[in-house]
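Sample entry follows:

:::
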Amino acid sequence: MHEPNGILRIETSNAPLPLGHYSQAVECAGLIFLSGILPLSSKSGDKNSFREEVSTVLSHADAILRATGARREDVIKVTVYVTDVGNWEIFDEEFALFMGPHRPARAVVPVPVLHHDCQVELELIAKAQGAA
């Protein structure tokens, strides 16, 4: 949905819909900005391993990227928030499998706590299809 200011709001039911006043992603000036993605699923109350949470956020990111017409190879910058920096290696392994040979810029930021008692949150910026 295009906003009056030329920003395109992206939404897909293939990833959890926003629970607050924000968009899953927006496209503007040839870039796509994905909001922070938590490893939420339809299975309520289940506590997943860190690896499972990473797999979930990457799957949600992929679904949102596909909804925009972008691919993993279009990802420019990733920011990852983790509640235990000791899980960095697990994240890196899963991320490498997800991205393949593509290596976007990335930051891993340790934080004390995340919403819904999650262990990882991911946000990213990608190049929009047709952007130079």
